[in-house]
Structures are given as C-alpha cells and as structure tokens.
Design brief:
This protein is mostly beta strands. Helices cover about 10% and strands about 25% of the residues. The chain has a 15-stranded mixed sheet, with helices on one face. It has a two-stranded parallel ribbon with strand order 8-10.
C-alpha cells in the first residue's frame, strides 16, 4: 500500500452491528469487542491495527470515546484528534492512561467540562481545545509542565485558571473567540466573552506568541510587559482604549495587532518598538498617529484603514516610512 497515511481517520459509532464497512473511502468501526469481529473481516481489522500502531489517531463523528478498544491495540499513541463529534458529551478521566500522548486536538465536540484526565499526561507538548461548550478551564491544567502550545478557542469561557501561568515552557498561548457568534451542528450560539486576563500571565517568560483576539477585554494587565521573548501580540476585536506602558518596551515584538478596538490615540512610546514589522490599527478611532511612529524603520506593513486620519497626514507618513506598505 503506497503512502500509508500517518494520520488515520477512524469513525466509531455505537451500534449493535459487529461488522466493518467501507464507506466513502474511510474505514468505519462499530464499537464492539474487537475479538468478536467476524473472520471474513479479519483482514480489514489487521490493516486498521497496522495503521493505529503508527501512533496517530483521528476520531471523527463519535458518540462515545472507545477508550478500551484503542488502548488494547496501542496504549502508546502519540497523537489524538477528536472532531465533529456533536453527540460526545464527556471524556472519562481514564484518558490519562495514554501516557505517551504528545499532541491532542479536540474540536467541535459537545464537552461542557474540560477533560481533566489529559492533564495527567506529562509528555504533552501540544493541546488545542477549540469550538466546544466548556465554560471553565480548571486548575488541573497547571500540571502540564512540558506544554509548549496551548490553544483555547471559540468557547463560552467564563473563567481561565491562573494555573496556566505556571506553564513555564509555554511558547504559544491563544485564548480567543470567547466573544463571538458561532454555528455548530446547525445551531447558532452567541458567546459573551471573557473580560479579564490574570496578571500572573506575566510569569510565562518563554512565551513568543500571545493571542487574545475576539474577547470582551477592556484592559490588559501591565504584567504582559514582562514577556521579553514575545514576538506576536494579537489583541484584535476587544474593547481596548489603551495598553499598559510596559508593552512598548518589548524589544522583540514584531507583530502588534490591535484592529477593531476603541483606541483614540497611541502614546509616543510606540516608537520604542524597534523590531516591529507589522502594526494593525484597522477600525479604531484614531485621528492621528504619534510622531515617534517614524522611528519604526523595520515596519513592513501598517494598516490604518477605518480610522479618521486625514489624507494629508497619510501622505506625510508615506514620506517618512518609504519602505512600509501603508493600508488606508
């Protein structure tokens, strides 16, 4: 078999049937004791086992998580994806048995409680938890000391645990889309959005990317100014009028994304961001830009569309920043 896929698509549904069917080019496994699969389907089962032993598994459209069936074939899977499973309501804490997991992605699943069993997996470095119905990220998430990437997106979050601030190896953190209108399984949901980010976020010294777009934030904790390794700060679609002054001292910051907020002015301190390459100020309430913005000689792209800056000021700015693409 040429080019055996390393990510397999395994559709599991609860049924009374003991057979494997080929449907739309994908293997469909009905949840039963694998030892009871009919002899004539043994070949298909062996192929499935061979694929599962690659260590990467994608579950799509499941009603229940077949923990025992997977564990009996390969308890050392390294990658697990669960998506488009609108009837899956919970995940047992026993998922912690998959100690070798390094990558987890759970998207478009009807989970109201965060699956804390995954928080006991020390090897985990990537965790994406997206488009679910969870309202609280619990303290247990602080156990994932080796985590480098954490995405918490498009959910009706009301509280984000300060324990995230103990994840010292975290390089990318995204908590976004908690204030948005979202369609899932044909139903439209409107999320109000979180309005608070704990000051402890300043402890994440390894952080390079911080995404807080599409929330309901009116202020950002000044401690973000302590994140000296930060290269991307994305704050689009909030209710921000100002930023704490410490942010303008982040010497490694290359992308500052502030579109769709309520900024009426920017301080002269923005000129301190010597490494800045992209600055997005689209759809704010700016009537002018500080003179110090002329100091941003590394700026590749400046978006000021949807503000009230006069054409005369834009022409002058173009002369001062001839190597910058200015969108207006």
């Amino acid at each position: 078999m040429k080019n055996i896929r390393f990510i397999i698509v395994l559709f599991l549904f609860v049924t009374n049937t003991n057979s494997l069917l080929a449907q739309e080019g994908k293997v469909e496994l009905y949840v039963e004791d694998l030892s009871k699969i009919s002899e004539q389907k043994l070949l298909e089962r062996q192929l499935l086992e061979k694929q599962l032993l690659t260590g990467k598994l994608e579950l799509n459209g499941i009603k229940n998580f077949p923990l025992d069936n997977i564990y009996n074939i390969n308890k050392n899977i390294k990658s697990l994806t669960i998506e488009n499973s609108f009837e899956l309501k919970n995940l047992s804490e026993e998922v912690k048995k998959f100690k070798s997991l390094e990558y987890i992605s759970i998207s478009k699943v009807s989970l109201t409680k965060f699956p804390i069993g995954f928080c006991d997996i020390d090897n985990l470095t990537f965790f994406s938890y997206d488009s679910n119905f969870t309202t609280i990220i619990p303290e247990e998430i602080g156990k994932l000391k080796n985590l480098k990437i954490l995405y918490l997106s498009r959910m009706p979050l009301k509280k984000v645990s300060t324990a995230i601030a103990t994840l010292g190896n975290l390089e990318r953190l995204s908590i976004d889309g908690t204030a948005s209108t979202y369609s899932m399984a044909g139903v439209i949901y409107k999320f109000d959005g979180i309005d608070y980010i704990p000051k402890e976020i300043g402890n994440l010294k390894s952080l390079k990317y911080l995404g807080l777009e599409k929330n309901n934030l009116e202020e950002i904790p000044k401690e973000i100014g302590l994140l000296n390794n930060l290269t991307v700060l994305a704050l689009d679609y909030n209710n921000l009028k100002t930023l704490p002054m410490g942010i303008y001292n982040l010497q490694n910051l290359q992308n500052l994304l502030l579109s769709n907020n309520a900024f009426e002015y920017l301080p002269e301190d923005i000129g301190n961001l010597k490494s800045l390459k992209r600055l997005n100020l689209e759809n704010n309430k700016l009537k002018f830009l500080p003179k110090s913005i002329e100091n941003l000689k590394n700026l590749i792209r400046l978006n000021i569309k949807g503000n009230e800056i006069s054409e005369a000021k834009i022409i002058e700015l173009k002369k001062k920043l001839p190597n910058t693409e200015i969108i207006y």
